[in-house]
Amino acid sequence: MSTVAVYLVVVFGAGALAVLLRLPPLVGFLAAGFVLNGMGVERLEIVGQLADLGVTLMLFGIGLKLDARSLLRKEVWGTAGAHMVLSTALGAGFLGVLMALGLHLPEESPRSLWLAGFALSFSSTVLVFKVLEDRSETTSLYGRVAIGILVVQDIAAVVFMTATSGHPPSPWAFALVLLVPGAWLFRRIWDRIGHGEMQALFGIAMALVPGYIAFSATGLKGDLGALLMGMLLASHANAGELSRALFTVKDLLLVAFFVSIGFHGLPTPEMVTTGLLLLVLLPAQAVVFVLLLWVFGLRRRTSVRAGLALSNYSEFALIVGAIGVSAGMLTEDWLVMLSVAVAASFVASTLVNRRGSPLPAALAAWLPEHPEQKLHPEDRPIDIGHAEVLVLGMGRVGQAAYHEFADEYGFSVVGIENSTARSERLRAAGLDVQNADATDKEFWERVIATGHVQVAVLAMPFHGSNLVALQQLTASGFTGTVAAVAQYDDEVQELRGHGVRTVFNLYSGAGIALASETIEALGLPPPER
After folding, report:
1. Of 66, 139, 214, 365, which residue has the fewest beta carbons closer than 10 angstroms?
2. What is the edge-to-edge ordering of all strands in the sheet holding 481-486?
3. What are residue 503's DSSP bridge partners?
4. Which residue has the higher pLDDT, 41 or 508?
5. 45: helix, coil or strand?
C-alpha cells in the first residue's frame, strides 16, 4: 500500500500543479510518470492494466458516437492514407538529416529510420479524443473528421501488427462476423436493463467481452474490437447516455495511461535532445493535414482545427517500437527516445489546442477560402437571417427553450447544433435547426450581419463551450439579450461576471420549476413577490 500511496501523492500533486499553472492536468500526469520512474518507485503491474482498460473504454465510447459511413468519405480515408505515406517519408528523411549532421541515433540503418518514421506518422487517439471531449466538439464536423482519420489509422495499425507479429489471426476470427446479428440481441437486452449502474456495467461488459477479449482471443487487436462493438451498438437510443455514464470512469483510467508512458525507460540527455528535436516534425505534419483536408473541400478554419488536433505523436509509436525491439529491427534505446517524443508532443499539442487559442484563426488567414459551391456540403455558410432567437446547443435543455420561445411566445427560433445526426433528427421533427459550430468566430460574424437576432440562449452541455460562444458573441458586438445554463454555482458566477444576466442553474432551477408546477397543480396562488 505504501507504493500505491506514493503513486497517488505524486500523480495528484503533479496534476494539481499543472492546473495551477493553467495547463491541462494530463501534462502533470505525464510528468508524474517520469518522476516516479526517476525516483526508482516500483512499476505496478496494475497501472498498465488500468491503462489498457481506459483505452478500451475510450475506443468503445468513440464507437458509440461514430457513424461508420463517415469512414467512407474521401476527406477521411483520403487524408489518412496520403498523410501516412507523406509523414513516414518526412520522418525518415528528417532522422536521416539528423544522422548526417552528426547526431547519434540508437541505430542508424535505413530500416530503423523508415520504421521510426512510420511510427511517428500516427496521431494519438487517446489525446485527440480527450482534447475534443474537453472542448465538447467530438460531434462537430472537424471533430468527426479527426476521429474518422484516427479510426483509419487504427485499422492500419492492426494490419501492421498482424503482418509483423509472425502469428496470423486464428481461423476463428471469421466467426466474429456473428457479432453483427448478435448486436441485435445485445440491443434487446439493453432495452430491459434500465438506467444507472446496470447500464454502465452493461457497457463495460460489451467493451471487454464481445469486444476486447473476443478479438484478442482470435489474434486481432482487442482495442479494435471494443471500437467495433461500440459502432454496432451506436444506433441504440441510449447510446449517448451510456457514453456519458462511462465518461468519468474512462477519464480516471486514462490517468494510468499517461502515467505509464514515463515507465518506458529513463532517457539519457542525448535521447531527450533527439526526442525534443522530433517536435520539429509536428508543424510540418500539421501543414500536411491542413492542406489535404482543404484540398478535399473543407473550409479553411475546419481544416486548420482538425490539422492542429491531429498534430501529435501516438502511443502507437511505442507499440511499433516494442514490436521493432522484439523483432530485432530496433534497439531498446529507440523505444525510450520515442517515449520522450510522444510525451513532449502531448504537452505541445495540449498547449496548441487550448480553448480560446488564437492560433486556428491566425493560420486560417493564410489559406484562401473555397467558393461556396466547392465547399464540403456540411461546411457551407448557413442562412439564419430570419432568426429572432438563437438556441445554441439542441440537447434536452435547448429543445425545451426552443419550444418555449417558438410555441408559447411566437418568436422565430433557430437552433444551432454541431451534431449532424441530432440536427437531421430534429429537422425531421419539424424544428428549424442548423448544423454549425457555435464556437466558430466566422459563424458569429454571419449571425451579427443579419441584425435580427434579439436573444441568444447558451444551452451547450459543457461550460467551456458556452464561455467560448459568449466571448465570440461579445467580440462581435452583439447587443441583444444573452441567457445561459450552468451546472454548478461557480459556473453561474463566472457567466454573470461576463455580463450574462439570466443564468439558469440546472440543478437548483429544476427544483424551483418542480415546486412551482406542484403549487400550480394544487390550485394554490403563487407567492407574492
Report:
1. 365
2. 433-435, 413-417, 389-392, 455-458, 481-486, 502-505
3. 484
4. 41
5. helix
